[in-house]
């Protein structure tokens, strides 16, 4: 029977409740915590000359960290922020490392999770390169309708690489 990362690690987690608009990690800081979302929504974003560009959304059951920073102790390429009041289970870098090293099952499951995330990122990148904003929005509606239902429009527009006004026009055409 395949193990579940949460089941293996749950004794190491600490509960954290945060209000909406709480920054959990700032771009440029070293990530020392992994988050499991129990309830709520997080986003990752980058600063582009003062403009926030949303890169991903995460919801209940998702694991979130700046994995590159978390694993390599290099500065994070992005920030992590709550979009709504959120309940998190947190895991320290040291506890995670200890568990990965002592559990081949956990290491394999984490590897599979990372491959899945890489695949999702590649799909989004190629969609961004190939499709116009209308098509990207239609794909978002089809593949992730919960995002449109729960996330404020200006974050969705940023994620799609368009202005809120352009998103409003696209939505009005539907």
Features of the shown structure:
174 residues, alpha+beta, Jelly Rolls, four-stranded antiparallel sheet, globular, cNMP-bd_dom, cNMP-bd_dom_sf, RmlC-like_jellyroll, Crp/Fnr family transcriptional regulator
Describe the structure.
This protein has 174 residues and is an alpha+beta fold. It has a domain of 99 residues: Sandwich (Jelly Rolls). Helix content is 48%, strand content 25%. It has 8 helices and 8 strands; from the N terminus they run H-E-E-E-E-E-E-H-E-E-H-H-H-H-H-H. The protein has a 4-stranded antiparallel sheet. Strands 2-7-4-5 form a 4-stranded antiparallel sheet. Strand 4 and strand 5 form a beta hairpin. Helix 3 packs across helix 4 and helix 7 packs across helix 8. The protein is globular and about 55 Å long. The model has no long low-confidence stretch (mean pLDDT 90). It comes from Belliella marina. InterPro entries: cNMP-bd_dom, cNMP-bd_dom_sf, RmlC-like_jellyroll. This is Crp/Fnr family transcriptional regulator. Pfam families: cNMP_binding (PF00027).
């Amino acid at each position: 029977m395949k193990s579940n990362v949460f089941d293996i690690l749950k004794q190491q987690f600490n509960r954290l409740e945060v209000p909406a608009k709480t920054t959990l990690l700032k771009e440029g800081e070293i990530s020392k915590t992994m988050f499991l979302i129990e309830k709520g929504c997080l986003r990752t974003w980058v600063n582009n000359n003062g403009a926030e560009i949303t890169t991903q959304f995460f919801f209940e059951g998702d694991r979130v960290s700046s994995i590159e920073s978390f694993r390599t102790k290099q500065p994070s390429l992005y920030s992590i922020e709550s979009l709504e009041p959120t309940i998190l289970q947190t895991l320290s870098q040291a506890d995670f490392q200890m568990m990965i090293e002592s559990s081949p099952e956990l290491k394999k499951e984490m590897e599979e999770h990372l491959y899945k995330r890489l695949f999702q990122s590649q799909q989004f990148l190629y969609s961004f390169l190939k499709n116009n904003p209308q098509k990207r929005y239609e794909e978002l509606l089809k593949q992730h309708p919960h995002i449109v239902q729960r996330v404020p429009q200006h974050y969705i527009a940023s994620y799609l690489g368009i202005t809120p006004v352009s998103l409003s026009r696209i939505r009005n055409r539907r």
